[in-house]
Specification:
332 residues; mainly alpha; Serine Threonine Protein Phosphatase 5, Tetratricopeptide repeat; 16 helices; 60% helix; 0% strand
Amino acid sequence: MEWHHALQVRVRYLFRLGEKFVDSRAVLTAALISFSVCAFALDQEETFINLTPGQDMLDPANLAQLLRQGDVRAMNNVGLLWAKGYNGKQSYIEALNWWKEAAKRGYTVAMNNIGLMYAKGHGVEQDFKEAFAWWHQAAFLGNAWAMNSVGDLYENGHGVEQNLMMAMTWYQSAAEQGERMAMYNIGSLYEAGKGVDRDYAAAMTWFRKAADKGDASAMHSVGAMYAEGRGVGADPVEAHAWYSVAHSRYPPEDADEAMRNRRDLDELGARLDPEQLARAKDRAAAIEALTRPAAHEPPKPLGPGEKATLLQYFLNTDDALHARLVVNFSIV
């Protein structure tokens, strides 16, 4: 990408393992002078807590070459492997070092991962102020996931003074970029009347926006609104359908919420007659089809005489799969 190449030329920095890290904020400030926020609004990899390293064998020589060239995705994904661990080797410190290298080049995904380390206390002392600092940088550079995270910290007063107006502002900015978690959070604020007048109709609108994008929590909330007749007419069949689809969409880290959804699904199902259950099943199938994630396109085929490289793998593969590389680790 043009911005990526220009940033590399401007920074004039080739990666050398073990060298001292410079102040990332200084580099980011220099980059901001030259590049607009919208230039950094890219499709994002998932953050490290949601990824599992794959088994794809890639040439370590290609990886080393990309690192010398300052390829930010290569740096970020080496960090992902260190954080998740592979073949018995794991180090949050190594992950942090790699992510800082990518962050110094303005790569917002790496900033998000650093923020997560501090927010979760993975390999470092839990520090919401530090998490806020990293996420705020990424949000200022246009990253929607970070915008939502900044909003969450403002809503809960973690690392920053609680400010529900600021929370809503950041959630709305993220939602405008299609961030489904932000859409759900806006709905939750309207549902609870936090910082805004309680408005079930508005809550339902935002829950539905997030649910249509496949968010399991939002699907459960849509089901609950239909079950209880809040913001919409009561419809137990529709509620059961949304609970059913949510059941298959919860990620492993949301196991507790998934259990609550299952309980609501079973309790509602016990009150429906066979004809209602049949209609709920049909409706769930329709919702499942409408909210199903798009299928990943396979990597583009090589042209005549082209040689496969790790960079091509990064550019042609879905972002959520970018951690699928194998390198020979050594603890430094």
